[in-house]
Amino acid sequence: MAIHQLIPSFVPGDATGQSALHLQLLLRRMGHAGGLYADEVGAGLEGLASPASALRPEPGDLVLYHHGIASPLSSRFMHLPCRRGVVFHNISPARFYTGLPLEDALVAGRAQLAAMADFADVAIGVSDFNAAELRVAGFRDVHTVPLFIEPGRFSRANADPKMLQRLSGPGPVLLGVSRVMPHKRFEDLLALHREVVRLRPQARLLMVGGYEPGSRYFRALKREAKGLSGVHFLGRLSHAELVAAYRSASVFVSMSEHEGFGVPLIEAMAAEVPVMAYAAAAVPETLGGAGVAFDQKRFAFLAELAVDLSEDLSLREPVLAGQTRRLEHFSAASAQVALSSALKGLLPPPAPRPRKAPKRPRVGLVVQRYGEVTGGAEKLAAQMAEHLAPHWDITVLTTCAKNHLSWDNTFPPGPDEVNGIRVLRFPTTRMRNIRGFNGLSRQVFDKPNERLREEQWVAEQGPLCPGLLKHLATTRDAYDGYLFFTYLYAPTVWGLPLVADRALLVPTTHDESPIRFGLYADVFERPRALLCLTPEELTIIEKYFPNHARTRVVGVGVDRPAADGARFREKHGIRKHYLLYVGRQEPGKGVGELLEYHQALKERFADAPDLVLAGDSNMDLSGEGVHYLGRIDEQDKHDALAGALAVVVPSRYESLSLLTLEAFAQGTPVLVNGRSDVLVGQVERSGAGRTYTDLDSFIQGLREVGDERAPMGKKGLEYVKKQGWPQVVAAYREEMERILEENRQ
Amino acid sequence: MKLLGRDIPARELIARIEERLRLRGLPTSEPVEVPAEGVEPRVEPLTFNLHALEENADATRALPLHTHRGGAGQLVLVAKWAFRKSCQVFINEALGRQRVFNGHVRDSYAQLSAEVIRLRREVEQLRARAGGKPVPAAADGELKRVDEAAARQGGTEQRVSSPDVPAKAAGSTKPDAAAEVRPAESAPRAKQATSRVPSTKEQARRPRESAPAAKPPPTSEVAPRTSTAQGPERSGGRASKKPSSPGKTARRAKQGAAGQNASEAKSTTSSEPVLPRPRHARGGAGEPTHSQAKTPRVRPETEGAASRTTGNTGPRSRKPDSRPRGRRK
């Protein structure tokens, strides 16, 4: 059973879209897959939401339609051939817009709401106030599922420093956040500010929210604000700027005369700003006794109150403490409890727990690609599948993609078999636009983001494979446990929460920009255990996700096939000493820097070694003494490793580096990027290599490795002998047994 | 003035602030009538949609002049006004068929919504006759909703026929036809769920505002048509006896053929064909000609195959036995 959501508009800054995204998160945690479908999909969000016309639910599915102002989707909703639910976000009363074009759309929205009443199996209001309106409209099975926010995203660390600087100055600073619409009563904010200025001439008023610059209402506000000092219309802000506005304010004020919920109220609570709000509609319910609500707009009185709240700590601190308590009601966990209760009658009953331990646990191994692909994590997944196959009944669940840059479907969908391992492939639904993806990465990396932007990045990263997610959600009884590989990609981010109670994750964590996304918390906190490859990886996880799931360093086994360096030289016509790198040849792996250093080496030293590169390439690999061999087979690789002067690992983002261990296994030392903690750890523990961080250290390291190749190679061999497959396999089996045992209990 | 908050000493705070206001010579707290906030009323969809179709059926009628733009926006308004003034006759010509089409949509909807209301009533009666026997869930819910609507209407004729009420009681309280709940006929466009009385201050602040419930209900336009569309049994109802207003009659006359189609829908009974007669078969007694109706003349239908997309026939086909056309030598 899938639970899809139908939204009129899915664009940045839209509260309904954000609510749908949050519901999708909760639904995944409850084990339900499903897509977002919108009449209007914002530019760049096509990976997250599909057009409403593409919605094709099956009879057993549930579609939740988010209703607000009049939308043609309400007619579509009534004719959907599946179970249906309405999520009501309220509609501004038409009395505020008499004579304006908006009036009809508001009344029509209410008529549509009433018309849907008999066609909905469940109705959800985001507040009790909204739920009451649903009942009045004729809905029967009505529940309240409050909206939630992620308080961490409103911390001071998430505020835009430039905006903080711009807004710094004398106080008190009043803040209003909402769309600039007549019923939000921004004119009352101005009236209040006028009174506050009488008490504190340096006072400022920040008004945040989207507006139409030419609208009659906005022009009237501008005229009214002309004679007032300290009034700033900031317009619509990015998330980081919004946090900076909250964090710059002394008091948050809402003069709105109609709120179906009032998200800015709880955002202000999360940003530790005292809230003053006119007690209209759902506002008292949302405040729940926190903050200060008032029932009359006596501006002189309210100005005194605002000054007290911003300056009198004996008043301010208890209010802030109360708001922090209230915030717990708007957590994801609370909302999930409410949502579970609302959907109780519509969801299938949970399958009975198995009484006996299965002889061979049925395990689904989830990885983004499988088969003839280059990639450390993918190779590790294949090795683990083959070593665990005698003990587990393994099915690899993967995509049809071969190329990780485009994710285009190369392998046929459906059942397949690779080296005796059963594989089930699902097609990807979207090719990656790598240029657009890189542009988005530049926008979102290393800065605070809202969830929407992070989800957008994951969608653009891909691979988008709804079939795989649906399989995970609908065939839970077919598997006793799941083993996910790599934290980074969409199948793990969106698939793991579906089966988190039976999932192990091999995260292959890198200390890279995306790991700072709050969205990955589910990946690191929800599985039953994280199986790490090195102690350094554990350190990275602890740094970014202190509440992570149980961890265990399991390492990997290393094969040591017989190899002959001379055979490799003979085959490829390489006469001189050579440095070797085998892997994906792309800038992200540091290959550009390696080529640059190698060319400098060639210019300075006549006897400089050549550089041999092997693996799939996505960049230009030309240069003096550079040999690019393309993909090579396993035996060729081990021959190359055995014959190399040293193996270079140029990537700064490594969670293990199988190449390093394979080089050690052939008695060859390594020269690694010293900016990777994992690589530095491997070299320090083994004593079988050197690190570099710039050209000088690269040359120095190479000189030392060349001088001490034999003793270093010996140390490397001793290091890998300690890591064998039997120990690794035993660790995986032990963790899976633990899951099975806990599920039986 | 009330301050709500668990974490503030509300009384003490109010007293402190009032004292400061008094010292500043500002008026202190006075009892003020606070508007009672309630949930918004239900908008009856059948009635609303019919009203909206009525309102917007004439595609040649201009939308109110409105702009969000400042400065240049005023020029845009003038340009729009001038365009309307000078080109209305062409607009009428271009949108003539659209107006006819909209009239058909409106009339079809009126007929269907009337049917829905009639069927709801029949289900209700059947349920009353069934004596408390279980009815299908959807119908049961529908009835409950209709009953709730009746309860909201209040008055001495308020019906009590929820599923929990014994059949006898439900049967015994059956009201007359005029008192029954007929959302599309007598229900206002929106009914206030909780009474919201605006304060005098609020009224003064928003002199032109009026809640949807306060709007003149569209029933004066809707009731006669929908009531007669429900068949002869309703013909004696109060709504059907209500005469049309003069303005309304004039507009009907203007609407011409569209209005005529509406009257056809009105006269449809269960014994009459559901579909209207083909256009070319009209023109009988009492039906206006196209010139009278001021609607574009429709090209006569031919026997050629209708196109898949529009259902219209293609270019006029030649008669099979017609003589070759063109200049004779």
Automatic annotation (TrEMBL), chain A:
GO terms for molecular function: glycosyltransferase activity. One of its GO terms (biological process) is lipopolysaccharide biosynthetic process. This is Glycosyltransferase family 4 protein. InterPro entries: Glyco_trans_1 (IPR001296). Residues 171-298 form the Glycosyl transferase family domain. Keywords: Transferase. Pfam families: Glyco_trans_1_4 (PF13692), Glycos_transf_1 (PF00534). It comes from the Bacteria.
